[in-house]
Amino acid sequence: MDRKQQFEQLKQLQEIDFVLVELNLYLDTHPGDMNALQQFNWYAQERAKLAAAYEQQYGPLTNFGHSLNQYPCGWDESPWPWEL
To answer: Which residue ranges does the record assign to the Protein CotJB domain (predicted)?
Structure first.
C-alpha cells in the first residue's frame, strides 16, 4: 500500500471539502448566484468521484452506512483516514 498516494488523495478530498463548505456558506447568503451554485455542484461531483476511487482502493472513509465496503478490505485494516 502506497501511503504517500493515500495521503495525497485524502488531502485532495480535504481541499474539496473546504471549498464545498465555503461555497455552502456563500450560497446561504447568496442563493441566486448561479455561478456559485454551478461551482458547488461541480465540486460535489468531483468529491464523489474522488471519494469513490479512494474507498475502492483503501476502504471506507466514513461509517454509519455512508460508505460502501467490500471484502476483504476495510474493517480490520489500518490506517484509518484519521490516522494518517
So the answer is: 8-83
**What grid cell was written down for 1?**
500500500
pTM for the model: 0.75
Which of 18, 21, 12, 19 lies closest to 81 in space, CA to CA?
A: 12
Angle at 24 between CA 54 and CA 13, to 5 degrees: 15
- Per domain, the residue ranges of the chain are 3-83
Summarised one tens digit per residue, pLDDT across range 37-60 is: 999 999 999 999 999 999 888 878
Residue 36 DSSP one-character state: H
13 vs 1, which has greater pLDDT? 13
Do 84 and 10 touch, CB atoms closer than 8 A? yes
